[in-house]
């Protein structure tokens, strides 16, 4: 069966991984087109190949084109029956989906609203020179990484712990009684946080439900097989991407 869906993304886990996990868990084949330069992004913004979008990842099915990761996840969740069953759960899913993507963005994006002392990940990881890679400025960047770990990481994780606990005391899924796209989003952001901040994540004693959730979700047969496969790429190691 040829893949109906095509995912355009960079050769890294990043935001694309939220989408890959949905395909993997659903057992739906998809074609992945790895981006090498910004041409696609420019064409996408101009709406040259379909509905104008923002930035990769981009999902295409025929002439239907969609960007914005949380929206793509919601769309695929609905397509593949991984969607909340009540209206209240649907709205709670929206809320948590937005929180997860705020967390990831803070771990990467470039937003500095000095008056609010709000520092984002690009600054966290690129303190000396914004355009140089993280690895060439690790030492200069470390205080910001330490700040992020101390002041922000545990807050995001605690919020997600409380959220998970709110449904069935944290023993099942994020909302309702069955797996939704949101569980896969939570799984990915936890894998991402653990990968980048392994020591702080492992040492955190206040997130037992998240840790158990991470283990339980990672052991689902299709996901476990994916994580062991060549299809699953590594995290780049310079942010939560
Ligand atoms: N809010 C968007 C952010 C997309 C985004 O920033 N994508 C990055 C890679 S993870 C990118 O390729 N940006 C290129 C650009 O902004 O032109 C989403 O969630 O999809």
Automatic annotation (TrEMBL):
Signal peptide: none
Residue ranges of every copy of the GST C-terminal domain listed in the record: 86-235
Record-linked CDD domains: GST_N_Sigma_like
PROSITE patterns per record: GST_CTER, GST_NTER
Stretches of the chain forming a coiled coil according to its record: none
Gene3D superfamilies recorded: 1.20.1050.10, Glutaredoxin (3.40.30.10)
Entry GO MF terms: glutathione transferase activity
GO-annotated biological processes: glutathione metabolic process
PANTHER family: GLUTATHIONE S-TRANSFERASE
Protein name (record): Glutathione transferase
Biological source species: Capitella teleta (Polychaete worm)
